[in-house]
Fold this sequence. Notes:
Oligomer: single chain
Helix content: over 70%
Mean pLDDT: 86
Distance between the termini: 92 Å
Amino acid sequence: MSASDRNRVFVLVLLFVSAVTSAFADDTPANDAPAKSALPESGLKSGYRSQDSDDLAMPMKPVVPLSAAGQSRNEALSWFMTGRFLDPNHRNEPAKSLNAFRKAIQLDPEAIEIYRTLVPLEFQADNIAAAVRYATKAVQLDPDDYGILELLARQAAISGQLPESIRHFERAVNSPRMSKTSPEYVFLNKDLGILYATTGQREKAADSFEIVFDALKTPEKYGIDSRTRNRMLTSPETAYEKIGQVLLDAKRLKIALEAFEMAAKSAKPGAGGNLSFNRAKILFLSDKSDEALAELQKYFGDQRTTKGREPYQLLDEILAKLNRSDELIHQLEKMADDDSQNVALQFFFADRLADAGELERARTIYDTMLQRGGDVSGYGGLARILRKMQKSDELLEALGRGMARGEDAIATLEPELKALSEDKALMGILLETGRKRAAEKTLTFEEAYLLAKLAAALKDPDSSGQFYRLAIDSNHNPNRPAVLIQIEMAEMYMKLRAYSQAVDTYHEVLESKILLEKGRARFFSLLAQALSHDNRTDEAVEAISEAIKREDDNAGFRFYEAWIYIRARNWDESIRKLEQVMKDFEDEKEVVQLSQFSLSNVYVQKGELQKGEEILEKILEVNPESSQANNDLGYLWADQGKNLERAEKMIRKALAAEPDNGSYLDSLGWVLFKLGKLEDAIEPLEQSVDKISAGGDGTVWDHLGDLFLKMMRTEKAVEAWQTALKHLEDEKTTDTQLLDRIKDKLLQHGPQEQPKPASKGSP
């Protein structure tokens, strides 16, 4: 390299370092805007020499002056290079690196390469909202960027948004740039297959796992090295047996058997018994029950326990298929005598005895096995027997002991708790037993907590709250802070519409000293919702303001603020707040769309129907498949009695996408009523009242009342309006116009005396 070349390189490096130094001399905050030029004013404008004998090096000037856009792109590139210089792979100054990349994206928001660097760093820094916002913009610019799509998919899965996660994974795996013979393709299919299996999409799960299976058999085809392959085989998610099970669930019997056989070959010596069980399942599904029974006996002959209850359940099904169910208890008894330490077998045998009415004998088996140890499922089985025997004291003790077995106990006991909650008489006795034990100071934390859950299932907020407080008082586990129980209690009050108690409980939560500031923001927002439902609007506004003060960039909090004004029927202020949310968070698609639907509804409630319709029509222009927009506009037209046939088609389109949506069912019933199809309207309206659990069921009952009146079934109409009135009063509705209309209908068509609201759920 010549001296002059070296000088030029040196000058460029000096310019770059000078830009870096200037950029962070004052540690500029990340969100400052607009960004100034990354190249500072300096003496370099007058030229530079590294030695006196060198020619003077002057900054280059473009022949054609740069446009403003070109200058912004150049400055963005400078900030981008600054970020690269400071990133973890070089100077390892992540905060300053992030700041530089953010400056770059402000200057050139269409530069996809900046997003590809910025998005992973935002995720690594746990700036999730920003990361998702930037990633969403990136895939708008480049819909085939499977790397960004994968990041979005993983974050959606972490957030519990499984359909959204699946959608992103599907786009990633189908990207034209994704090689179908690459390791990335295999790993994306693995994750997608797991999500499909989790959400019950068996066929799609099997499609994905077939690719994973092929990669394990022919790793060289996908460029997978031996270490990666071995890691996949030892992972519970991608082991041969797991793959075989997914394929079996989709009834792909031949390839499932191949996977099970490979699992047996790769297993440790003596582990072949699982293959016999898996073969038995495949034979049974292939309508070869005799052969399946013979294969299953091989598994039993080894006295294996690896498959838990499944083999005995399969035995039950095979014998039923062969019309030999009367042999089941005899076979189980013989195996139980030969294998007295097999807990799964003993419990399954006891359950079948209980089904046959031999309760004492079944109870003895459970007691014996639980004395030796046992697990939560054993206490669930014992509770089932004690429930059948109506022994409340022992039942409560068994449930409490079961819950004490671990954090996952509630989920394991859930089926029995559900069955118990449906036995109203026994539940009443059980609650009294709990109160008696509390008075005697013998009620354990676990028993009190379970009774709180059971009382909530009975929709008894007072009893539930009583036992939650007893649970808090008897809680001596330092790893189980009282605030966690208080949070659950507040959620129970909200669900059961005991809003005043919810407010008090959220205040207690906020007094907890273990809440981080971010947590306090969230609970101020929850307090605001409870206050709003309790019609304490001014206090609700104060509470949501406290949340916003702590997280002013939280779009959800800002939307809740608008929602409070909507509920208070302050239309002008709610319009102002919603429009501001859409302006401030224009990149957050879900919040913007939610605000649009809310704004449409506000205009409708305000009486400006045309404006409400226009908003929905604009949504449909962008997304004609939007279920909510189709439903809402269809309902709005139906309510006005116009465009009825088109409205019916739109509502049916929405229902086809979401057949269990109670609001859409109400819309269908209402448009059919308006069309005069009275008999057809009954079913969707009656289905709707079963689907809508809160905040809207009063309207549906009102619709049912109008329908029954039109059909000359006045008594049924009155019952429906009485039920509507009770719902609206329970909800503490602020819709006084709807309340007045229903009361007028009851005065016109009901009994002469003051109407009494019917109980919830009246026909």
